[in-house]
Write a structure and sequence with these properties.
There is one protein chain. The protein has 15 helices and eleven strands. The chain is α/β, with parallel strands linked by helices and about 350 residues long. The chain folds into three domains: about 70 residues, Multidrug-efflux Transporter Regulator, Chain: A, Domain 2 (Orthogonal Bundle); about 60 residues; about 200 residues, Vaccinia Virus protein VP39 (Rossmann fold, 3-Layer(aba) Sandwich). The strands form two sheets. Strands 4, 5, 6, 7, 8, 9, 10 and 11 form an eight-stranded mixed beta sheet that branches. Strands 1-3-2 form a three-stranded antiparallel beta sheet. The termini are far apart. Bound molecules: S-adenosylmethionine. S-adenosylmethionine binds next to helix 10.
């Protein structure tokens, strides 16, 4: 017969209070035996293993409800959902706090410059206000194209290329060109990040050639399709505006057909994020829908049908001269190659 333990023995074992154990029991997380004579709880080794799991899950911030769901339904998809939600929460908090930290640093620097007396000062308040706005933009990006819904049919629709603009007519060439630019660059075992990895077509190319690549995407369904196609591909939930990695983590950042889902204000923040996670001598290669400039866009739109213009205006094609100015702020040089009417590849180093 299995050894069993009293509530105080279990509490001692984990250095927690007996009340905490009673709480988990009341919430249905534990199922101890009740002694016949006095109804006292007795815990088996199965309960001990379960309690250890509960405490560890709590330590990474899972709620009692999450833990109950994981313990009651141990299917992989269910666990992945709870853990991904928590990962997203933690990543959001890291980004929110990091914006607050740098705003505090700026405020403190400003205060050092002041005389002894402190009056509420507009330049100090402006710093705090702009950090608030930055957090708002970072958290307000929404997927208005519903990529989760598109994930399962994405590859087929790229092949069919039914849109008016035929933006996918050079899809394979664009992915291959991005791959070649990285492959021919001077990196030894580069660590590569792909943003907006989608169904994994570009990351899969790198993976099959033995590259160390991680793909992030804001769509769980896209990630799940890419994982089905390339089980060994490392993927994470993540957005351009809140890249879930530390500073200086990657030698190369690549992205295809994804950057045009950000407007110009968001692009500026995304560029800052990409530069943040890129190593000093790192390289960025983006294949996407662009115009050379606003003037170039105007003259191209003049010759297009209403339907085509509507298709363009549903997204945010970049202006290369705008991106060039932004990357220059980080002493990075942008080179571009036109692939067809709307598709360009830019290389930034
Ligand atoms: C048109 S698909 C392109 C997928 C893939 N890169 C390719 O070339 O086939 C755009 C992808 O970018 C992702 N995406 C769009 N906006 C994003 C954002 N702000 N952060 C991360 N991923 C994003 C979408 O979820 C989708 O998977």
């Amino acid at each position: 017969m299995d050894n069993n333990y009293s509530i105080s023995q279990v509490a001692d074992m984990f250095n927690i209070t007996a009340n905490k154990i009673r709480f988990y029991d009341k919430k249905g997380l534990l199922d101890p035996i009740r002694q016949k004579d006095n109804e006292y709880r007795r815990f088996t080794s199965r309960d001990i293993v379960r309690l250890q799991a509960i405490l560890l899950y709590r330590s990474i911030g899972l709620t009692v409800g999450d833990i109950k769901s994981i313990l009651d339904n141990n299917e992989k998809e269910n666990c992945l959902t709870h853990l991904s939600n928590q990962w997203e929460f933690v990543n959001n908090e890291i980004h929110r706090l990091s914006v607050i930290r740098s705003s505090l640093e700026n405020v403190i620097d400003k205060l050092y410059e002041k005389t002894k007396e402190y009056k509420i000062d507009s330049d100090v308040l402006d710093i705090i206000k702009s950090s608030q706005e930055l957090n708002k933009i970072k958290n307000n990006w929404k997927d208005k194209w519903d990529f989760n819904n598109w994930a399962k049919t994405y590859d087929k629709s790229v092949e069919a290329d039914k849109g008016e603009l035929k933006i996918y007519k050079n899809y394979k060439l664009i992915l291959q060109s991005v791959y070649d630019l990285v492959h021919n660059a001077d990196f030894l075992n580069p660590r590569i990040l792909e943003i907006g990895v989608g169904t994994g077509n570009l990351a899969g190319k790198f993976l099959s050639s033995g590259y160390n690549i991680i793909g992030i995407d804001q769509s769980r369904e896209m990630l799940s399709v890419s994982k089905q196609k390339y089980p060994k591909l490392k993927v994470r939930l993540g957005e351009f505006l809140k890249i879930p990695y530390e500073n200086n983590s990657f030698d190369v950042v690549v992205s295809t057909y994804a950057f045009h889902h950000l407007n110009d204000v968001e692009k500026v923040i995304a560029i800052e994020e990409i530069i943040r996670v890129l190593k000093d001598r790192g390289m960025i290669v983006i294949g996407d829908l662009m115009f050379k400039s606003k003037e170039d866009e105007k003259s191209i739109l003049k010759g297009l049908s209403k339907d085509k213009i509507a298709e363009i205006e549903d997204e945010y094609y970049s202006h290369i001269n705008f991106l060039e100015d932004e990357f220059n702020k980080y002493n990075k040089k942008l080179e571009y190659k036109r692939i067809d009417e709307f598709n360009y590849i830019i290389k930034i180093q």
